[in-house]
Amino acid sequence: METNQVDDWAEKYALGQMAGEEKARFEDLLAKNPSLLKKVNFYKELVQAIESDSDVLQFRQVVSEIGQEYLHAERERHNRKIFVRALLTAAVFLLLLFMTFLLNDVMHKPHTATEIYATYYHPYKTGITFRSGSISTPVAYEKACKLYEDGQYRESVAIFDQLLKANPEDRSALLYSGVARMELGEFRKAETNFRAIIDQGNSLYVDQAEWYCGLCLLMQDEKTRARDHFNKLALKSGYYQKQAKSLLKYLK
């Protein structure tokens, strides 16, 4: 029997790693071999010394604590990774949202006078059919308004002009005729109508006249004069205040 093999068996027996038939054969061998028994006893004493040594136990405790701290640190790192990943995802989402908003604003922001006009111009609706003392021919006025609402602007202008010959200060006829001329692209003539209303002072339709007059000037490339009209409306509480403030942002 080789010495190395005997040592391995002795160590295995001392550690309690033998069982069954192998253990029985080795115990028979021990009974016949005192030197082998000494080796087994030596290994047993060595194992007991190691297991009972307080320094070793302390070392084991330290190793255990280090292991727990490592696991805790790993969990913390994992949680931080999840948090950072979520934070980055949110940041990317907000950046994309901002870029989309910015791109949309740039793409839809009116730049030229024509684009500003197209964004803010809307024809005025005829809300009042008759006013006492302002219409010399009610039937003709009603017909002109009907043509205006139907989009037959040139025909309506012809009738409004006849009414204005009879009463040049008829504010409703001046307003509707002016807007009809804007639809026809006759901005200078439309401006004249609106100025006639403004010149009458603080009266009916003056805010509408300021608004449409500014738009007419804008289409005549007279931005400085147009800005004056919009500034008046922006400083005045009324229907056109909000629109005037918005338009002025693009009128540089």
CA(first)-CA(last) distance? 107 Å
Order of helices and strands: HHHHHHHHHHHH
* CATH homologous superfamily assignment of the largest domain: Tetratricopeptide repeat domain
User: Whole-number average pLDDT?
Assistant: 80
What quaternary form is this? single chain
Strand content: under 5%
> What's the helix count?
12
Number of DSSP strand runs: 0
Gyration radius, rounded? 50 Å
Which terms would index this structure?
mainly alpha; 252 residues; Serine Threonine Protein Phosphatase 5, Tetratricopeptide repeat; 12 helices; 3 domains; single chain; 77% helix
Describe the structure in your own words.
- With about 250 residues, this protein is an all-alpha fold.
- It has helices at about 5-15, 20-30, 35-50, 55-110, 115-120, 140-150, 155-165, 170-185, 185-200, 205-220, 225-235, 240-250.
- It folds into 3 domains: about 5-50, no CATH class; about 65-110; about 115-250, Alpha Horseshoe (Serine Threonine Protein Phosphatase 5, Tetratricopeptide repeat), CATH 1.25.40.
- The chain is built from 12 helices and no strands.
- It is rod-shaped.
- The relative contact order is 0.06.
